[in-house]
Amino acid sequence: MGHLEIGVLASGRGSNFQSIIDAVERGYLQVSLRVLVTDNPAAFAIDRAKNHGIEHLVMRPKEFASREEYFERIAAELKRRGVDLVVLAGFMRIVGKPLIDAFRHRIMNIHPALLPSFPGLHGQRQALDYGVKISGCTVHFVDEGMDTGPVIIQAAVPVRDDDTEDSLSARILGFEHKIYPEAIRLFSEGRLNVAGRRVLVKGADIEETGLTHPPAGL
Length: 218
Ligand code: GRF
Description:
Helix content: 25-40%
Strand order of the largest sheet: 3-2-1-4-5-6-7
Distance between the termini: 37 Å
Strand content: 15-25%
CATH class of the largest domain: Alpha Beta
Bound molecules: 5-O-phosphono-beta-D-ribofuranosylamine
Radius of gyration: 17 Å
Order of helices and strands: EHEHEHEHEHEEHEE
CATH superfamily of the largest domain: Formyl transferase, N-terminal domain
């Protein structure tokens, strides 16, 4: 696969976006961060884009006639820039069909739980409320559902008795920042094949299955 052009969609602080920027800058990822698209003019992700010379576009749904048109236009802006892979990094909207169709199996998302457990908002709080002992994070391809697409890579993270939503979120976030660049790297190397619900990783060894990230102390 040639040099991959990436478009990032983010709505907020953009720490995952930053982890990808850092991975590019240290040469772990050999891809171009072509454009950031955000639905939130106050997103801190915009400052990160500016600091690293990455183009950004603010596109707010209310400026478009319909949800369909909104996602059509995002797809068009991404295509116009030659984007090959769309990376959702804290993009707080369900992606509309026009964008999914334009980038089938070429849109990734990261979720702060071990899917299919605890999809939707506040995955970390859901895990605490349920009482699970292990949670984690998941990078998956995006389909029409909410956090339902084929799983690419996961990391397991222990839940401690004294965890709060904040402390668990912070522990999980540390692993998000590792596995998102890993998933993008596997994609950029042409090593991800979607077979139904499964994503098969070419040449994967145990280093690249998520088991690289066992909870400390296990
Ligand atoms: C992360 O917890 C991610 O898993 C979820 O939204 C949050 C985004 O955080 N999808 P950030 O904007 O990347 O810091």
